[in-house]
Write a structure and sequence with these properties.
86% of the residues lie in helices and 0% in strands. With 203 residues, it is mostly helical.
């Protein structure tokens, strides 16, 4: 019986022909091949139409982040998701980075990070609180109350995360991709801001 099993094992290994193994390898390469193709297409769009590409990237990712935050709170408002997309769509970071490079030149990642965290990010958070409230139709008194209750909390949380992101961005990322990296990081940050501002909506 043992001799019969030993003879059967080589037969099992012969079930997969070289063509079948090649087919399986090709199938496993399809997802990665598609990702490479998408990355190449996005890179081309970023080089040929940088402002348009950065605009729709921020629009889509901000809408997705807010929708995720709402799902985590077991609610959904299409108007709120759209408001987040609209307020994030203008590629502000693109022009901010251009201003930093124009005034300070290349490099100087520490100084650029400091200016970003002291001047630009607090303004951007304040802008998010105001415009997202206005676009969702909240009364101005409610917008101001939200700012009083949550703005400083958001700033303190921002300084725990964004200095490292900004430093890495300025130190190691080519200028063409800096805004895209910030959009990627902003996806998770917008989830947090949406949760922070949405706490009053579910009370």
């Amino acid at each position: 019986a043992e001799a019969a099993e030993a003879m059967a094992e080589p037969e099992k290994s012969l079930d997969k022909t070289p063509d079948a193994e090649q087919g399986e390898a090709e199938d496993s390469e399809v997802p990665s091949g598609r990702l490479v193709a998408v990355a190449a297409w996005y890179d081309k769009e970023l080089r040929t139409r940088p402002l348009l590409t950065k605009t729709w990237t921020a629009f889509v990712m901000s809408g997705m982040s807010n929708s995720l935050a709402q799902a985590m709170q077991s609610r959904f408002s299409g108007r709120e998701a759209l408001s987040y997309s609209l307020q994030a769509a203008p590629p502000y970071s693109h022009f901010w980075f251009m201003l930093l490079d124009g005034q300070l030149g290349p490099g100087k990642a520490v100084l650029k990070t400091f200016l970003d965290q002291v001047i630009w990010r607090p303004l951007l958070v304040f802008y998010t609180f105001v415009l997202s409230g206005v676009l969702t139709g909240k009364p101005w008194e409610e917008v101001k109350l939200n700012i009083r209750q949550n703005y400083l909390t958001a700033i303190k949380s921002m300084w725990k995360v964004w200095p490292a992101v900004m430093f890495v961005n300025q130190k190691y990322v080519p200028a063409l991709y800096q805004s895209s990296l910030m959009d990627l990081a902003s996806f998770f940050w917008d989830v947090y801001l949406s949760l922070l501002q949405g706490r009053r909506a579910i009370k």
